[in-house]
Amino acid sequence: MKLKNLTDKLLENWPAKIVCLTLSLLLFMFYRMSTLEQRVFSIPLKVQTNGDLVPAVPYPRTVTVRVRGEMDVLYPVEEKDISAFFDLSHLEHEGEFRIPIQVSISGSINHDEAFEIMVEPAEFVMRVENRAVKKVPVLPSFTGYPESGYEFDGYMINPVSVEVSGPRSFISKIDDMVTQPIDLSGRNANFEGFSGIVNRNPLITVSSGGTVEYRVIIINKIITRIFSDFDISVNGLDPHFSIETIIDPGRIEIRGKQIELEEWNITENALYINAKNIDRIGVYSLPVMVSLPEGFEAVNYSPQEVQLTVSRKPL
Questions:
Q1: pLDDT digits (tens, 9 = 90+) for 242-283
Q2: DSSP states of 109-168 as a string?
Q3: Does the pLDDT of residue 210 top 80, yes or no?
Q4: Residue 155: CB partners within 8 Å, gap ≥ 6?
């Protein structure tokens, strides 16, 4: 009888008792959760592949990992202990797939203790394609201008080509790779260095570490200048003779280094006539000679020959 009475009392108003019990459990769980500590980490997201299929759309490079648990459990956890990755190695063909993000914790954390791990985002839709490899030339990019009087004359780079690898549809559109701009501003001599290859697509991998070595050739800029209306000298004439002819003024086009030629002025003997072999009066047809500083070249000049009427000076 006593057992029956106990049973009756237990079952009396049983719906209300069930509700109370449920509320008690919820309150306990809420209290328990409120006393748990939480730590938040930003973790680099890695990809695992079999080498044949690779991501063909951009994906997050970091994910947010939340770890909840008792303080003494969470305290030892450091960012380096957490790894986040998604695995494509089980896929066998191209297409779009819903891929979960997996998280693992290593280090000194006690895995026997209760803790909770959440990752944001938990999954995403990923398109994968066959991995392609292609060899393409490297084209240097230049900016600026050398110092006045100097000019760019060429370059050498190493390597001259690189391998690019990545999803098939992207690789098929790549014909060359371009370097970061190499600055020529103010240069007046050859120089060398290293430059990165511009790769704005994180899905593409470039060989050679994504850099090239270069050597740039800078030379003196060559210009031409024209000088005209200057006197042609007559050199070596016997003082007993005189020239009766009026010699036309000279004109000469000179080629040379800009930094030297721009500062140079025509000299007295730039064009001259050698009259040292004249030993009697008469009419002589003599060539006009050129005398220029080393490094200058006469492109053209006139006159190239003159006729001189030579007479003897009166005593």
A1: 999 889 999 999 999 999 999 999 988 999 999 999 999 999
A2: --TTS-EEEEEES-EEEEEEEEEEEEEEEEEEEEES-PPTTEEEEEEEEESSEEEEEEEH
A3: yes
A4: 140, 182, 214, 215, 216, 217
Q: At a CB cut-off of 8 Å and minimum separation 6, what does 28 contact?
A: none
Contacts of 236 (CB under 8 A, 6+ apart): 274, 275, 276
Closest to 195 measured CA to CA, from 215, 180, 178, 206: 180
Cα 45 to Cα 54: distance, rounded to the nearest angstrom: 15
Between CA 286 and CA 304 the distance in angstroms is: 9
Q: What is the torsion angle, in degrees rounded to the nearest 10, for the CA atoms of residue 23, residue 24, residue 27 and residue 29? A: -110
CA separation (Å) from 265 to 148, 221, 225?
19, 18, 10
Q: Measure CA of the first residue to CA of the last residue in the chain; give whole Å.
A: 174
- The confidence score (pLDDT) of residue 69 equals 75
pTM: 0.69
